[in-house]
């Protein structure tokens, strides 16, 4: 089993490089590979796996990479047990029979701005949690018993179709409409980008965001009044 997952492609370098330019404190991933930990370990990030999840960790001053479905470490011996959620029974255990992962996800998106990267939202366990929480949140906001929700964005690649008659490439607007409706139910704002080859489109978008964030931060720093 471990050999099977060893052949999977880890998080791509072209995506990891621009992420370093953000002042991240928490990263939540459903990936099993440890590429994120290897990349951010020098910034004092530690890895937390499923059985260690606790909502209190989100308010901790330490920096964590949360593998909510478990992780496979590159340096672990081949005979060691896999610490991952894989089977339907395991998903049911963590999403239906206990509230460990659902509570963690709801606390994260409820208290902190969130950006979803490389998420297809095809995992029904995760989308069910998001949809139920968003519905409850909207009800509380409309009643005036809760402040407005935190911003949530998802970076989504544009789907391109070939137009054989004109020889041009066109956008799949049906897909765009469907995806925007789906994300609206989840309380998420889509940020579209052209896919490109080898993650180029996503990398370029992250680089652009990092530059704009740095510029805003610099502007705030320059305008800060001097303490007498």
Structure, described:
With 228 residues, the protein is an alpha/beta fold. The chain has two domains: 23-112, no CATH class; 113-222, no CATH class. It is built from eight helices and ten strands. It has helices at 2-6, 13-19, 35-40, 88-97, 100-111, 124-142, 173-185, 200-223; strands at 26-29, 45-49, 63-67, 70-71, 83-84, 114-117, 152-158, 160-163, 168-171, 189-194. The chain has a three-stranded parallel β-sheet. Strand 8 and strand 9 form a beta hairpin. The longest helix is centred in the C-terminal third of the chain and has 24 residues, at 200-223. It is globular. The N and C termini lie far apart (64 Å).
Number of domains: 2
Number of alpha- plus pi-helical segments: 8
Helical content stands at 40-55%
Q: How far is the N terminus from the C terminus? A: 64 Å
Tally of strands:
10
Largest sheet: 3 strands, parallel
Strand percent estimate: 15-25%
Structural class: alpha/beta
Shape: globular
Assembly type of the shown chains? single chain
Show unreliable segments: none
Mean pLDDT: 83
The Rg value, from CA coordinates, equals 20 Å
Order of helices and strands: HHEHEEEEHHEHEEEHEH
Strand order of the largest sheet: 1-3-2
């Amino acid at each position: 089993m471990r050999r099977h997952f060893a052949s999977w492609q880890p998080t791509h370098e072209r995506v990891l490089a621009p992420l370093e330019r953000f002042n991240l404190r928490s990263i939540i991933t459903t990936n099993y590979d440890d590429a994120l930990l290897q990349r951010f370990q020098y910034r004092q990030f530690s890895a937390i796996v499923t059985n260690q999840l606790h909502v209190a960790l989100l308010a901790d001053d330490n920096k964590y990479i949360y593998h909510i479905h478990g992780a496979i470490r590159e340096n672990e011996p081949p005979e060691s047990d896999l610490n991952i959620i894989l089977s339907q029974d395991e998903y049911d255990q963590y999403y239906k029979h206990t509230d460990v992962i659902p509570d963690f996800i709801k606390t994260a998106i409820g208290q902190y701005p969130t950006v979803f990267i490389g998420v297809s939202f095809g995992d029904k366990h995760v989308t069910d949690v998001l949809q139920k929480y968003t519905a409850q949140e909207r009800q509380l906001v409309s009643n005036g018993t809760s402040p407005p929700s935190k911003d949530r964005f998802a970076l989504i690649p544009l789907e391109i179709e070939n137009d054989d008659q004109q020889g041009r490439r066109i956008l799949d607007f049906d897909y765009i409409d469907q995806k925007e409706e789906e994300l609206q139910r989840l309380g998420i704002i889509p940020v579209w980008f052209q896919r490109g080859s080898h993650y180029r489109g996503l990398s370029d978008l992250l680089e652009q965001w990092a530059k704009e964030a740095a510029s805003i931060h610099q502007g705030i720093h320059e305008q800060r009044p001097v303490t007498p």
